[in-house]
Amino acid sequence: MLLSEQAYQKIDRELTKFPADQKQSAIMASLAIAQDENGWLSAEIIEDVAKYLGVPPIAVQEVATFYNMFNVTRTGKHKISVCTNLPCALRDGEKAGDYLKRKLGVDYRGTSADGMFTLIEGECMGACGDAPVVIVNNKHMCVRMTEARLDELVAGLRAQGETA
Fold first, then answer.
1. Annotated binding site: which residue ranges?
2. Which positions bind [2Fe-2S] cluster (predicted)?
3. pLDDT digits (tens, 9 = 90+) for 34-68
4. Which parts are annotated binding residues for [2Fe-2S] cluster?
5. What proportions of the chain, in percent to the nearest 5, are helix, strand and coil?
């Protein structure tokens, strides 16, 4: 077992939401639990989740690699996803992404030298009217991200890292 007892208890709670013969329905939630605890989903974690759910490892691997909210490679402490789909791109999404690339010293799919940030391009986040939009760690949406607001975001995340 690679996860904590608390993680398996959370997965058990997810399993109660589905019929006993539909355990694969808990794959997404189980992967989210595992990633929250581990930071990313190694091949070993994916296999462990599959074993725990009693489903083929390929079924879990397919979900983990299909959705960009799951990290199948190590990421920085903070993953910043920038929406670059056309509506956001037309409303400074690309400009925001370029600014973050320069500020963090990385390209998309890169991790900053200090290990604090991974920058990725994101798919539509459903907030086109509030572009440019970024999502931090798959959980916190930030809208109307000017250079000044991006500076504040990065500084705040850095400060969190220094106190952790």
1. 83, 88, 124, 128
2. 83, 88, 124, 128
3. 999 998 999 999 999 999 999 999 999 999 999 88
4. 83, 88, 124, 128
5. 55, 10, 35
